[in-house]
Amino acid sequence: METMTWKLLLFGLIPLWATGPAASTVEAADWAWKQIQPSGPEPAARAYGTAVHDPVADRIILFGGQGSGAFLNDVWAFDLASQQWQELDPSGTAPSPRHGHNAIYDPVGHSMVVWAGQGAGFFNDVWVLELGEMRWRELDPANSPDRRYGSAAVFDPLSRSLVQFAGFTNSGRFNDTQSLDLLNETWLVLNPET
């Protein structure tokens, strides 16, 4: 029988990267944990940051979160081949420090797209980290959803959109869904059938 390999990389409780055969073909006996202990610098411990897999450079990009007593807006890359962390210093103005935000990988723009979160208040801003140039830029899309943190987001490859659901602030919870068209930089309210 051919051996199948699955890889899942975790930083704290953040699932950073996974690859392998279809889940239906993996047996429980195929799973094994292996702790990676990179040498050199590492990101500070944090909660509620985000990470995406950059398949072009075969690395994990980590952004922000809540560290020991402070919100963060640092950017780190974990090289999957060398298993080493490197702190990155993107050009441009960085997003405000935050946690509980969303991030998706846009393969068309080869970028990490960051939306919302909480730091010195609640956010509904959209930031693009261009991974080739390693540069931040802020988008100014029309019809932005309410400020929030703790929502969920995925990348829709058919429409090249960030699709977000729910979230909350200190005044309540949201139960809404919006889609950010990354080409036209416009939010669209979605009303899925229940």
Fill in the keyword field for this structure.
mainly beta; four-stranded antiparallel beta sheet; globular; disordered N terminus
Instruction: Indicate the proportion of strand residues.
Output: over 45%
- Per DSSP E runs of 2 or more residues, the count of β-strands stands at 16
Low-confidence stretches: 1-6
Number of helices: 0
Rounded to an integer, what's the Rg over CA atoms?
17 Å
Looking across the biggest beta sheet, what order are the strands in? 3-4-5-6
Shape: globular
Helical content class = under 10%
Element order: H for helix, E for strand: EEEEEEEEEEEEEEEE
Secondary-structure class: mainly beta
The major β-sheet equals: 4 strands, antiparallel
Q: Report the mean per-residue pLDDT as an integer.
A: 89
What distance lies between the first and last C-alpha atoms, to the nearest angstrom? 43 Å
Question: Please, could you describe this protein's structure?
Answer:
The strands form five sheets. Strands 3-4-5-6 form a four-stranded antiparallel β-sheet, with no helix packed on it. A four-stranded antiparallel β-sheet has the order 7-8-9-10, with no helix packed on it. The chain is 0% helix and 47% strand. The N and C termini lie far apart (43 Å). It has strands at 7-11, 14-19, 50-54, 59-66, 71-79, 84-88, 102-106, 111-119, 121-130, 135-139, 152-156, 161-165, 168-169, 172-173, 177-181, 186-190. With 194 residues, the protein is mostly beta strands. Residues 1-6 have low confidence and may be disordered.
